[in-house]
Amino acid sequence: QDAEIVRTRDPQLLAGCDIVVDVGGEYDPGRHRYDHHQRSFTESMRSLRPDKPWGTKLSSAGLVYCHFGSQILAGLLGQPEDGPVVTALYDKLYENFVEEIDALDNGIAPGPGEPRYALSSTLSARVGLLNPRWNDPEQDTEVG
Asked: Record's InterPro entries (predicted)?
């Protein structure tokens, strides 16, 4: 609730952060580092949670969802984290939303023939909605 969001790639600033997402070049959940840009990174939902069927390489969004999604959903719903409602919603949100982000962020096409994941929009289109319109007099992308 009182967290400060810092947008940087400066390693000295990142070292002082409690949680680092999508930058920093390391995946270490014990230290709350959730980057997927290392050449050696191959984690999927299935590799981190063997009870899950999805083999799409995770993006940083997928890593955060994998590690915190159930906890967040349980808190929002007032349901037990390991209960059937949270489990069903966690799976549906991953399958119908987060997996697409993971795949697009990692350059994975839906696949030849039978698509590997549902494409309801694109990550680029979603991010584009956050940017000011071309004719907006206020072009500062940091203004919210």
From this structure: MYG1_exonuclease (IPR003226)
